[in-house]
Amino acid sequence: MRVWELKMVSAVEIGDNNTDSEVDEVIKNCLVPKAPQSFFLYAGAGSGKTYSLVKALEGFNFSYGERQRRLGKNVAVITYTNAACDEIIERVKGDSLFHISTIHSFCWRQIKSFNDDIRKWVQAELPSEIELLEIQEAKGRAGTKASITRQRSIANKRERLDWLSCRREFTYSPNGDNIGKASLSHAEVLQICSYFLLKKPSFGQMVVSKYPFLLIDESQDTNKQLVEAFFELEKKHQGRFGLGLIGDMMQRIYGDGKSDLGKDLPDHWCTPVKKLNRRSPSRIIALANDIRSETDEQKQCVLQDKQDKGEGFVRLYIASTNLENKPAFESEIREEMAVHTGDELWRDQKEVKHLMLEHMMAASRMGFPEMYSTLRSSKRLTTGLNSGDLPAVRLFSEYVLPLYHLEKAGKKHGVMNHLRRSKSPLLHPDFLKTPSLVDAPLLPLKEAITSLVALIDEKPDVSFQEVLLCVSASNLFSLPQSLFPFAENIEAIDEADETDETDETDEKVSSLDAIRNFLQTPYNQIESYRDYVAGEGAFDTHQGVKGREFKRVLVVMDDEEAGGFLFSYEKLFEVKSPTKNDIDKLAKGEETGVDRTRRLFYVTCTRAEDSLALVAYSNNPELLKQNVINKGWFNEGEIVVR
Question: How many other β-carbons are positioned within 10 Å of the β-carbon of residue 124?
């Protein structure tokens, strides 16, 4: 029999606007050109880290800006999203002293003039990619669609390798699609920059000379390989270069971040801590503090002005995982929250941010489950899929879909602008000068648009593959490299085994097979997917709301519907016992699914500005209730079991 030590919900200290003033002073003292000092700033949920960052930049500008401009030096600030970049740029009034960008933009800016070195790096990488495909092909069944796809991919990579035998200039767009042999992928840009920082001393010297300070926001989710390269740069140039990392390891949500960031920092680093949460009321902060108490000892306090408006609302609703109509149950919860909080906007689904455990849950509720499930089966594709940046999908979401809507709306001017921005090959000057098109240079373009729209209109269940073949046949848009192997019909000799085993770590299927399976799903799911990744729907996940806040938050926790293996609320709430693999990882000090789920729970709960409702679907609702009470996360009166 298990004996519990009953814990009480924690109390929260109260702070004021000056609570973290000493932290701002510490950062100010680090940003001194004659004696740069590196720092790791812990900035928890709602702590106003952007305020502190901007205040530090303004102070630096006042004290050292004029001299730094004369020397041609800048402070580099790396943020996670374009929206965050725009916010900081606006707050510093666009001052050119500060180079503010996303990580991909920053890396490309540093490497883009080193074309010959980039060429050598790509030449060295491609053979290993070809070798992996050849190994998979040797193990697979000949004559299947999977085999033919691999062979085409191998041929494309060999063609690019031959193309690299001569000197070339490379291209890259941080915010767009990178198509063609000269284009670098997002992953390649980060890898190349990391490699140059570690292996080319002159490159590191160039970066340090240009940027005596490099500040990285959301550092817990910045690419591990790149962060480690920056650490080496700081070590080699200590006293001349300052590295500032801003973040919170409890809010790490992406797998490619450095999991031990902040541990075993060099002795000369400063480690200031922001304690004040300016976003949430005390009850939500207390819950957040209790959740993370199983990970570390960081505790936040509430802003006095926020506390004066009330302690906020938290409710946990628990139901059986076998409940038939879960969306209806969640609608009932919104009704109850409207009554409980006195906030009528809880009744309006659009005014409540619904946060899902996994993207698959949102995909099912918003209507794009098939296309999402096929692509997420490849670990290599998930980051781009979840962010909306996967080139194989963007062809349909950012090129085909907008064109279709503009054409159907009769916006001819908008159609032409879209095609120009998309650099349609049918508008390329060389194509328009074709002798046979002298009398009607735009005829192929009109025919291509007409055939595409007719295909989508006349066949409601048209697949992505059919749309791709239509686009490819007319050359309406340039295709990303990942779709080249599928741009022609594949006549398989043997259909008995369409998916082969692979050696890709943690892959259910290879990325090529995943894309091939995706292309067989209904094209009509693309619009819901696009709305989702654009954040225009009521449903979202912890990744999609990174750094954001909402008045009303409804968190939905359902392990079975999520269908994933990276997270488990049933284990976090101790309804399910840990597996042998969990126990082994825990013994080795490695991250477990419970660790990831706890961080997810923390991130979702701390998005709420006023009120928070949580719904947990469980195989044992009563046990879950008792466990969270025993943990001290909720009072009994805050829990409703249905």
Answer: 10
